[in-house]
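Re-running the complex after MR caught last week's input typo. The corrected sequence lines follow. Everything else is unchanged.
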Amino acid sequence: MQTITTDNWLLTVGTFLPLVGVLVLIFIPKGEEQLIKTLGIVTAGATLAVGIFTMFRFDFGQAEKLQFFVDVTWIEVIRSNYTIGLDGISLPLYLLSMVITFLVMIYTWDNMPDAGNPKAFYILMLLLQVGMAGTFIAQDLILFFVFFELVLLPMYFMIGVWGGEDRRYASLKFFLYTMFGSALMLVAFLALFFQTGAESFGFAQLIEAGAGIDRNVQIWIFAGMFIGFAVKVPMFPFHTWLPDAHTQAPTQGSVILAAILLKLGTYGFVRIAIPMLPEGAKAWAPVIAILAVIGIIYGALCCLAQTDMKRLIAFSSVAHMGFVMLGIATLTEFGINAALFGMIAHGWITGMLFFVAGAVKHRYHTLEIKRLSGLLTQVPRLGWILGLCAMASLGLPGLAGFWGEFPVILSAYNPGFGLSEPLFRTLMVIAALGTVLAAAYLLWLYQRTAFGEPTEEFAGRTTHAVGAAVAPDHADDHHDAHHDEELRDVTVTEWIAWTPLLIAIVVFGVYPQLMFRVFDPAVTELVARLGESLNP
Amino acid sequence: MLAANFLLLSAVIFCIGVFGVIARRNAVLVLMSIELILAAVMLNLVAFSAVLGTIDGQVFTLFVIGVAAAEVGVGLAMVLMVYRNRRSIALDELSEMKG
Amino acid sequence: MIAADALPTGFFLDYAWLIPLVPAIGFALIIGFGKKLPYRGSEIGIASMAISTVLAVGAVVQWMQRVNTADSGSGSAGGDGGALESVNGFARSVFPSATAGENGEPYVEPVIRTWTWWQNGGLEFGLGQHIDGLAVLMLSLVAFISLLVQIFSLDYVRGDRRYTHFFAALTLFSAGMLVMVLAENMVQIILGWEIMGLCSFMLIGHWWEDTANSKAALKAFFTVRVGDIGLLVGTAIIFFGANQWAIDNLDSHGFSVQAISAWALSGDAGTQVLLWGSVALFIACIGKSGQFPLHTWLPDAMAGPTPVSSLLHSSTMVVAGVFLVARLYPVFWEGLAFGPGGLNLIAIIGAITLVIAALLAFVQDDIKKVLAYSTVSQLGMMMLALGTGAWLPAVFHVFTHAFFKCCLFLCAGSVSHSGSHHSFDMKKDMGGLVKKMPWTAGAWIVATLALTGVFPFAGFFSKDEIIVNVGENGYTTLMWIAYLGAFLTAAYMTRATYLTFFGEPRGAAAGEHHDDVDAHTEEPHDEALVAAGHHLDAQGEPEPGVGHVAAARADDGHDGHGHDDHAHGPHESGKLILVPVVILAFLATVSGFTNAVPFGEDFEILKRYVEPRAAVVDLEDARLAIAGGPGEALQLIAPSAAAVDACGFAAPPDGAVCFFPAVNHAPFKWSKGFLALGIVGAGLLSAWLFCVAFYGRRDRRLVGLTDRFAPARWGYLFLWNKYYLDHLYERVIVRGVAYPIANAAYWVNQHVIDRMVDDSGRGTRQVGEFMYRNIDQRVVDGAVNASGTVASETGHVLQPVQSGKVNQYGALLFGAAAVAGIVLVLINV
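Corrected-run output:
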């Protein structure tokens, strides 16, 4: 694998900068909430700035190569190196994690979850950011694993401390489930390492050596990785932690979970499982594809049965990640490119949907679809934003969701490397059916919540003048006076936090080339290498 | 021989340190004595390094100086806390650590 | 590159992509700033549509010049060809002497420009324009109709609470259709297609406070979306079928419309691929164009404001399906084997739709629903034409139908706006309006005559051409079905006309108030007059003797939300409403002459300029033309000398491609023309007599027939329930199947999968507890405890040593160290 090492300090700085913020935050007394929030946001902003600078230094002409490459000895005893690098596949995800963290932090300024304690909350978010960014740049299995696991703990606390009523159950389930997957994944990593007899855990080496493993062994190793990543994605039938975690998590947690954490799993497939174990991937691809399509239909059907808005959005993630996995399972450039696009688009759209759900919860103190109606009358802007996101989520062309969905369906017509065409074509039709179901549950949700007149329960509540200054004590007063409180339309903080996402949804939807040209060379290279080992 | 002189000096300092640690009741003095012991060790290190012509001993010494400084810091902080709580730093009065 | 300068393009053709871009930008501007503008955004909408119209008309003119140049070049083949040959040094005849028939006409290369939109797997896919005759025709049609509809809306939805949003959505709607019409590739078609779906959702559900409206919007979007499965799947099939061929032969890719057309006709395409691809794509058209059995959303979509219905049904949205078939005609031609003749899916579905929708129109009381079913029926007619190889008549009918159907809808809007107090119920609130609303009635009657196909109105020519061509191409049965459709059309339109404009005024048309509905009947006279004063163009004073109906019937379930309408009985509408109506009525009269076959070649304008030439084109030229990129793809492509067989009937020879099949054109026959006129006349007359007898005189033999005569009752009920299709979809499929399945899936999720997870967690914990209690505590801990006891005993012995005094510890330490040192020394010595 070719690498470029110019400016290679950038990645390390970008990844670990939040730790500096954590260190500073530790020494600030708990009471200084404003200062803590400011510092948290500044840190995340600085990280994002480094990220954006990285993007400008990134050589898009050679997106297939690992850039900003660093390879230094880390833990010599176990032959693990500190190997990091960024190529076209990881760059967008790396940036996405930074953007989302930054926006979530801004959102938290006004919308601290009920449990309070911004200090701990911001520290956890910064730690989370380190883990997420690290996962996307790691080019060494052990390093990857460390970052991958680093993400777990802050999220566990986020759900467990700041979550809803059933938070303990949800957080424990999330933690144990993912740990279970990780354990198998680690075993698979070690098995891969010992089977190849590689000299280090570096991706490049393992990719070279991995293809040489006996096919049956590959299949077994792939199984371990599959479970580890599939839990994270989550794929049917490993998805049951997701609705609970999402429903119970605070808005911020849901957004990060949906936008980035789920991508760690799919990224793992693209970056590790498939290139390192081509034969295993080929053997598993039909299984993955079938499970993915079951996930699409099944997730959509579960959505139709939901009575809670947030839970519905959570199940829609299962369906959308099904599309992503179907794309990956085709093992073609078309499918993997689309899957990567779908990952990013899902991050924006579902993240945004969770934001909106959080905002609704904040205003109405309920997410029950039955009790909500007439959002467009009472909080019109919020209603419009929900509409835009719903449309994006159901894959309307011109919005980002389409580009993760349509090419995936397309690619399933012609899977790569001699995978069964009749099977994949059947799956294609079923997946296309999934888009109809997506339209059904999203529009149904939209029709029930946004259209119509407000329900009696909330009908009396007046709408706050739009754009009026947000009362500084707003965050505190919403506990007591539920029914006398005025309904605010989208607040300034929310606008700041959401606008970038909304713009991204539209811009990348209208001009997807911005993203595809980053992915495409790297994916083409990846598939070409697959081809070398599968069709020698 | 040159080294012998250094070793002799360091042995003397060491003994003074040990004496201080065992005999004195004042915690601060005990700490100072410990510093003496460390100084003796460092002197040895430097001496051997000079004799053998390698730099390792000196590097080690630098580390030990650093560690010693940290240790004194911690020690003095503890002494201060003890003093605050008990208005005394006599060591034989501090026997809660017995098993 | 041969003859690069041979065909003029000009600004309007090169920049045709501006036509959809202008409304798209207009949409963004309206959303962004519309509310702050003096006319609340409507001016942007109208301005953008006006600009689009101008651009589109410019494109039409330049396209005609381009075709003329090509044809004249063809005429003086020898000289030009020789000159060019010498210039290029190629031993290739540019304009070979024209062979007989259509093969002799030069192929007029579309003006294609693309910009990279996305890439995948190293292939770059574009966003661009594909301007040919069909595109310029539709562009100008869509832009023009949109403009008129928006002008109409100015008055019609004045005072609506979402006035700005209405214009924004309307503008985006037009932009969507325009994008689709000039689409260069399939993905762009999908883009425009879905934008229209979105806008139809927004517009049909415009008054979403009412659940019925939002449900209709949902239904429209959802039904179309069901069809869209076909679009996605069909595009995938075609893409992978055509991609490699397109790369190899045309340096293009499998999305490009041009490449797909050439591939379909090349003979290299697999039959199965073409068959499945075309069937899948046609399923999308069934959904979008309201063909049987997915037509049920169209009448429900009448819940939207009338201008929306008008736009939806005339030139956008529902026509998209027909346009898609027309655009990808080679695919359908080959896939469903139009060439050899014989029944095929499109023709059958078209014929079924034509008849069943027309029958449904008889039992509707809502004037808009009559028109909706009429549209469905006419769309069936277009599909029938396309399915039987009559491409040009179908497109021609799209063209004329847009005018008269738009006109009819706007008339219906005008009637409800000013005549029937926002009611669309013909039986309750209309009748006798011809005296009160002469202009509207006149326009309606003209449009009705055009729709039914009376000479010399537009519908006569287009419908007649369809019927004649269907018969000529060997589909005799279908031809008679089409005649039946014409008869039914004449009959139900007569019924609607009679109920609306003739007979006794009823309900609101008679000036009655809906006192039972109105909450503010007592509102003072002055206020109503003030409200009337807001209407810039309010014509006519309140009719004497007609009471004033209160303003602002915001609760009226149908049209008219938020109108602060001036309250008086039926009267003629304002100028802003009438002008578009009259213009459309005029066009409904004359547009038929654009392709009036009976009057000879000179009148066959559409045939000359719109229909792509079925010429065999040299592959090299085609490749250069398609791959030329922005601004360069402007070559004239000459028909290859090697043309042997007509395109679409035999594969073109090696090194040549076809872009359009050689469709047959039936000559006009007076016999059939008179037959059609006779059938239409019979329909008009019989329906008129029936109406007069049934609605006017309440003839006892007819009234109550459905009660007395069982088959008639069953038939009526069958129609009244819309063939029970809605029941099937809503009750059986959605409620009976989808919901239980969804609930079952969720139940499985919660009680099986999740239960397993929970149980395994619980089980693990139980195992853990068991281990803890029995093994850990008793066995392992037993051992530990035993060892602990030993340790503790020892500890007791040693306890005194632990004095807690640092000095003692130090002494012990150094003592021990000293002892150790001594031992070391001893050992070493």
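None of the earlier attempt is carried over here. The radius of gyration of chain A is 22 Å. The beta strands of chain A are 67-75, 80-86.
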